[in-house]
Every structure is written in C-alpha cells, then in structure tokens.
Amino acid sequence: MVYRVHVEGPLADIPIDMLSRRTIKSVLERMLDKGVTSQAVKAQAVIRQMLTYAVNEERIPFNFIANMAPVAPENVRMRVYSDAEIKAIWSGVAEPETLIIPDTIADKRRDGSLVQIGQPMRIAIQLVFLLLQHRNEVLGMARSELDLEHGVWAIPASRMKSKRAHIVPLSPWAISLIEHAIRLNDGLKTDQVFLGRVDASRSMNGPSMNVALTAVLRACAIEDGTIHDIRRTGSTLMTSERLNISPFIRSKVFGHYDAGGGAQVSMQRYDANTYVREKRAALAQWQQLLARIVGEPMEPVLRFDGTSAIAGAFAISGPPVSSPAASLALFRSAQ
C-alpha cells in the first residue's frame, strides 16, 4: 500500500541507476509537507529495502540511503479505548441507525448525518473485537478455513502478516456471528464469508471497515480512533491486572512470534505447538470482560471435544502448516 500510494508514482519511471539520494529525499520531504509523517517513515523503509535488493542483484553498487537518518521520528501509537468508548463503539456498530453525525461533519459527507453500515460489516467489526485479529484477516475469512463444529479458524500463512499459519479458537459467541454472516450470503456459492460488493468471489476490503468505524467514532464524538486500536485495546487489557494473561500467550493469540524468554532457535525449530487450549482460555477471559463492558449476555464457555480440554500440541515435522485444510486436519488429529 505504501509503495503503490507514495513511492510508485514519483519514482517508478526513473531508471534505478539514475536514482539519487537527493531525489529520494525530495520525495520523502514532499510527503512530510503534506502531513503524512508516519507514511513517509514507512516509505523510506520500503525504498531502503528495494535498494538493498538491487544491490544483491548487482543492479547498483551500493545502497545510497542505507545510512540516511529517518526523515521524521516515528511515533509509536499507543491509543487504547476506555470502557466507555468500547461500549459506545459496540453499541454504535450494532445499531448505527440510532447514530447521528454532527452537522459540522455531515455537511461534507455523501450520507449526511446518517451512519449506514451493512449487516456483514457490523458482524466483521464485532469479530475484530471478539477475536482481536487484523481487519484484513477477518474480512478475508473463508468457509474453508473454518471448523465451526470444533470451534477453530485456521488462517493460512499466505493471509498472515507473519507468513505463518495461525489457529484462532472460536467461542460460541464468535461462531454465532460467523454463522449469521454466512446466512446473509443468501445461498451464494462462494468460499468467502464477507462478500465484496461487486464480486462475490472476493472479500470486502480493509478500507471499507475503516470508513464504517470512522462514521461511528464521529457520531459518538470519539477522537483519534482507528480499527487497529481495538486490537491494541484488547492486547493491553489481556495483560493488565484485570485479566492477568501472560504476554507470551497474548502473543500467541495475536499470531506474533514470541520465544517467551527462551532461545529463539528453540521456538523456531523445536516448538511446533499452536497453544490452542491456552489461546482459547485467554480469548474466553477477554470476551467475558468485553461482554461485561458492552452489556451483552455471555454464554458459558463450552468444550468442543465433549470430553477434555482441547490439546494444544501438534506433532508437526517440516515447515509451518500453510493451508487451512492441513491446519484443521492437524487440529482434529490432536483431539
């Protein structure tokens, strides 16, 4: 996205052996002039990676921005929603027809003061709250990735930012929402759960969720909020004294790489566990807290194997599992 929006236009037509440090710096400075500071920092990193690749391919002799200072300090975003904000957002997403955009903003919107969010998008945002996964991972959810009988969502490596397959345990609450989203597809033969507006074979896109949430935030007078802040809020509450979930298991829920204080080589090469039981317990605690905050009734936590807690260890040899079918097969074999 950063390359397509900010880098490709000004630099794509310049032969790589004609690029200069001054040219690149000018492009980045123009971005700063437009106020896109964080994107300028990311664009600098993208260009640096491209030039490093060019050096490896012997297209240029050296990376002339390798030692270039950051064009701007990158501010680490730490926005966390309060309980009141969480409740307002949840209620607004569930019933956007009750919201009204202030006149000062409504005059500039195509929909005026109305907040219009389709039912599938409402469910998708609620699933971001419940499961704390990235917006694109939720919107790209496919039926072939789901085992609703056993409460498992297996995201393939190709759809994960980390490029590693990720198992997400599903609670009855999440399963109910997913089943509702599937019913909304009205019997269409598609693998996608959240259908694109034009092509049913493709999923909704990430920016559409940003637009929907922004409308809710404006109507609720909540400032400086993003969809990713939901994920950060859940992460922060998980490891807070309210839930006291270990950072290691929190990282597993989020699909992050974390050696848990041990040697990285042990985690990378000698630990093939997916920690399903621990992740299910952590998400259950989070969802119970979320239910109390937003005022939703919370069903008892169910065991999906009917006898014992779900095993978290899989005997996997070779590279990480990359397909939903393989992940689900491994999950079933572990029961």
Q: If you had to describe this structure to a student in words, what would you say it looks like?
A:
The chain folds into two domains: 55 residues, no CATH class; 251 residues, Orthogonal Bundle (hpI Integrase, Chain A). With 335 residues, it is mainly alpha-helical. The longest helix has 20 residues. Strands 1-2-3 form a three-stranded antiparallel beta sheet. The chain has 14 helices and three strands.
Features:
335 residues; mainly alpha; hpI Integrase, Chain A; 2 domains; 3-stranded antiparallel beta sheet; 14 helices; 3 strands; 47% helix
What class would the helix/strand composition place it in? Answer: mainly alpha
* Count of extended strands: 3
- Label the CATH architecture of the largest domain: Orthogonal Bundle
**Major β-sheet annotation:** 3 strands, antiparallel
Q: Any idea of the CATH class of the largest domain?
A: Mainly Alpha
Strand ordering within the main sheet: 1-2-3
Rounded radius of gyration (Å): 22 Å
CATH superfamily of the largest domain: Intergrase catalytic core
Structurally, the number of domains stands at 2
Uncertain spans: 306-322
What integer is the average pLDDT?
A: 85
N-to-C terminal Cα separation, in Å? Answer: 41 Å
Q: What's the CATH topology name of the largest domain?
A: hpI Integrase, Chain A
Topology at a glance:
Layout lengths: L1 H10 L9 H13 L3 H20 L26 H12 L8 H4 L12 H13 L3 H5 L6 E2 L4 E4 L10 E4 L2 H12 L22 H14 L8 H11 L8 H8 L9 H7 L5 H19 L29 H10 L2
Antiparallel strand pairs: 1-2, 2-3
Helix pairs in contact: 1-3, 2-3, 6-8, 11-13
